[in-house]
């Protein structure tokens, strides 16, 4: 099998939430395969720091943005449209979580999660369509990769989390809806559903050796995800290797969803 199937040279990607955790893993993987990568997150200092860090692997440009509001989505879309004429790969990774007991779970917490995890994904995709359509060809589709979660399939890990798993289930279903609509435009839409990976959201569970071991014991492969696991799947979905794949959500979880 030719390595060219997974080559991203000459392609341009946008990775939201690209300054840490899963977003950083994806951006680094794309850069190592030759893509030019734009990353974004809310904090300007985090953007600047990650741009400097990732630039050792390739052409990385960071731009601060708040994707929980239509204004923030539109501002990012306008800025990117002034920078590039087409976009080959959009990764909707930015997300938020909120934990609170059912009896007191707050509306601000619910809205914070849904605004970024669902509304932000939909409207950023909408605003990026002109750039994606410009890049798309029948034999070389543009790619949208949404980041869901295994919590969109299964009950959360013994914590009071209600908005987050609901939002990720919505992302999984929205992926199928968008894939059906955008196939005619030569744009594929797929999602990944990560299990435990190193990130701010999992830091509470992985902070100690005991916590890490406890999480790993629940995974059939007996470990948490590595950065190479994340890069491998997302490079596949961004590359020629997946040109005939659309509308699917792939668990990246060491077997947790399907084997436990």
Helix content: 40-55%
- The strands making up the biggest β-sheet line up spatially as 3-2-1-4-5-6-7
Structural class: alpha/beta
Overall strand count: 7
**Uncertain residue ranges:** none
Tell me about the largest β-sheet: 7 strands, parallel
Question: How would you characterize the overall build of this protein?
Answer:
- There is one protein chain.
- The model has no long low-confidence stretch (mean pLDDT 93).
- The protein is globular.
- It has helices spanning 21-32, 44-54, 70-83, 107-135, 163-182, 203-206, 209-217, 227-238, 256-259; strands at residues 12-16, 36-41, 60-64, 89-92, 142-147, 187-194, 249-252.
- It has 260 residues and is an alpha/beta fold.
- The protein contains 9 helices and 7 strands; from the N terminus they run E-H-E-H-E-H-E-H-E-H-E-H-H-H-E-H.
- The protein is 44% helix and 15% strand.
What would you say about this model in short?
With 260 residues, the chain is α/β, with parallel strands linked by helices. The protein contains nine helices and seven strands.
Q: What's the SSE blueprint?
A:
Elements: E1 12-16, H1 21-32, E2 36-41, H2 44-54, E3 60-64, H3 70-83, E4 89-92, H4 107-135, E5 142-147, H5 163-182, E6 187-194, H6 203-206, H7 209-217, H8 227-238, E7 249-252, H9 256-259
Parallel strand pairs: 1-2, 1-4, 2-3, 4-5, 5-6, 6-7
Helix pairs in contact: 1-8, 3-4, 4-5
